[in-house]
Amino acid sequence: MPLAWSDFARLLEGAPLPAALVDLDALDRNVAAIRAAVRGSGKTLRVASKSVRHVGLLRRILEGGGDAFRGLMCYSPREAAFLAGEGLDDLLVAYPSTRGLADVAAHVARGKTIRLMADGVAQLRAYAQAARAAGVVLDVLLELDVAYQPLGGRLHLGVLRSPLRRPEDVAWLARQAARIDGVRVVGLMGYEAHVAGLPDATPFSPALNPMRRVLKRLSVPEIAAVRAEAVEALRREGVDPIVVNGGGTGSLATTTREACVTEVTAGSGFLCSHLFDYYVGQSLEPAAFFALEVCRLPAPGVVTCFGGGYVASGEPGWDRLPIPWLPRGLSYVAMEGAGEVQTPLRDASGVGLAVGDPVVFRHAKAGELAERFDEYLLVRSGRLEAREPTYRGRGACFG
Ligand SMILES: Cc1ncc(COP(=O)(O)O)c(C=O)c1O
Question: For the whole model, what pTM was predicted?
Answer without folding.
Answer: 0.97
